[in-house]
Amino acid sequence: MGVTHEVTNQVPPLAGHDPIAGDTALAEACVRHADVATLDSLKALGALAGSEQAQEWGRLANENPPRLRTHDRYGHRVDEVEFHPAWHDLMRTAFEHGLAGAPWHQDPAHPEPHAHVRRAVGYLGWTQVEMGHGCPVTMTYAAVPALRAAPELAARYEPGLTASAYEFGLAEPTGKRGLVAGMGMTEKQGGSDVRANTTRAVPNSDGTYALTGHKWFTSAPMSDLFLVLAQLSEGVSCFLVPRVLPDGTRNVFRLQRLKDKLGDRANASSEVEFEGTTAWLVGEPGRGVPTIIEMVNTTRLDCVLGSAATMRAALTQAIHHARHRRAFGALLADQPLMQNVLADLAVESEAATALAVRLAAAVDAGESDFLRLAGAAAKFWVCKRTPTAVAEALEVLGGNGYVEESGMPRLYRQAPLNSIWEGSGNVIALDVLRAMGRSSASLAAVRAEIDLARGADARLDAAVGRLAAELADPEQLPVRARRIAGLLALCLQASLLLRHAPAAVADTFCASRLDGDWGAVLGTLPGGTPVSAILERARVAPV
Ligand SMILES: Cc1cc2nc3c(=O)[nH]c(=O)nc-3n(C[C@H](O)[C@H](O)[C@H](O)COP(=O)(O)OP(=O)(O)OC[C@H]3O[C@@H](n4cnc5c(N)ncnc54)[C@H](O)[C@@H]3O)c2cc1C
Predict the structure, then answer these.
(1) Which residues contact residue 487 at a Cβ distance below 8 angstroms, ignoring those fewer than 6 apart?
(2) pLDDT, tens digit, for every residue of 514-525?
(3) Which of 373, 336, 342 shows the shortest CA–CA distance to 358?
(4) Ligand 1 centroid to residue 158 C-alpha, Å
(5) This prediction's pTM
(6) Is the shortest distance between the CB of 429 and ligand 1 below 6 Å?
(7) Residues 270/135, Cβ–Cβ less than 8 Å
(8) Residue 215 CA, closest ligand 1 atom number
(9) How high does pLDDT run on average in the chain?
(10) Residue 231: CB within 6 Å of ligand 1?
């Protein structure tokens, strides 16, 4: 083979870093809302998350997406999904490290006051490897509080849902070491407006129900249990649907096809038909939406965590690239305009991380009023910021960022998804208004949190004034819902950064995001921004 050229100025692969303890902003948030022992308990997960091995699992799981097998060779329906072994490695790691339902299990002899923060920090670090498997991990986590509306069902299935074990395959759930849960709400005629669901539930003589209808989106169809909405004469109601019935026979759970998705390719998302499918009522008849909202609100937390993770993963790659690639005689990382781009991304990422972990701390503390409103506003804002941030980080890698092997296209394709899930942009922004309208306690709790930084920075005080003016104006509130949701989230982020982040980060955030000293694209921070301090903090340390 003739040698035509030497390969130079290409960036070495990024591995051997710890995206949990090595990420200063995330590690500080963990210690702030939990303690050092909690952070230390995530050491092994952090080391794995930065390893070549885990990156390879992520690549393989995406390059070998799940395959639907509707029938066996003899024509019997099997309704199974086959996954590459790397998918199972990812799932097993997440479950065994307690990122699924584990925080809901409290051993009275050894209470864990920071179980949800621990999980959130682990989730934010670990899912940077691969986002798709985060979906079933999240739904398993989120199913537990909703299932508690039916204490008998919770007693039966909660031990499996909260176990730190992963066991793939069709089997009677109570005999499995660990369970995976999914959710079936969305139908063809409407996903946001679930009251328009047409799936019907008819009572059986033994106290169960028979469901007939369809679900247009049901992710992770290989899960053991699903929370599903269907109509009773009393209205939309919530049901538990196991894929295998207590007597060990298969329930009717017909997988029609898998979605051919923009991203999220390692994860299976299906269309499902129910025909006389056996189900158990969860909560009161006709109270399906308030029942499943427990699950929806919990998954919203993970939309914020997942988006913060996506931004952080993209930023980490961008910084790594810029620190090794030279152009025009100097490292990219030393060039002033590139520093501006990277610092802007770092500020965005840290603000998302701080808010995401603060939400998880609210779960530990039972701050439901705060969580209801702050969770919705954060879900709107952090998810909306993610595609923009990832696109900019991708460009830091130049043409290499547009090439699949870099991993950036995978992050880019995933980036819009959290904004669609669990209340797409408009719906979640309108939900922010609803949360404020329904309970003054929610707004009071969020204001109290913002006010903890009152007086610390005139730009935050002014933004709080603008927010108050927006809220005081009753005209055309729905038209302004995105403005209000975004401003609320920005005020929360600013309050957190002013109290907990170095001045370089907090001041830059306030100048750009609150005071308007900023452009329409990232990389437009004002001259004089302390970019070196911001970038030094944003580097992820090795294991
Ligand atoms: C990959 C993937 C996996 C999914 N997995 C699941 C799953 O496991 N289980 C499940 O139940 N669903 C799942 N979904 C469905 C998802 O939750 C829905 O797509 C989402 O809730 C939006 O519903 P829709 O698609 O019917 O859009 P629509 O409800 O038709 O909304 C379309 C647009 O209109 C906007 N809109 C709606 N109402 C208003 C209004 N009043 N004012 C202004 N704008 C409005 C929305 O914000 C949205 O942008 C999945 C979706 C995807 C893409």
Answers:
(1) 463, 466, 467, 470
(2) 999 999 999 999
(3) 373
(4) 28
(5) 0.98
(6) no
(7) no
(8) 11
(9) 97
(10) no
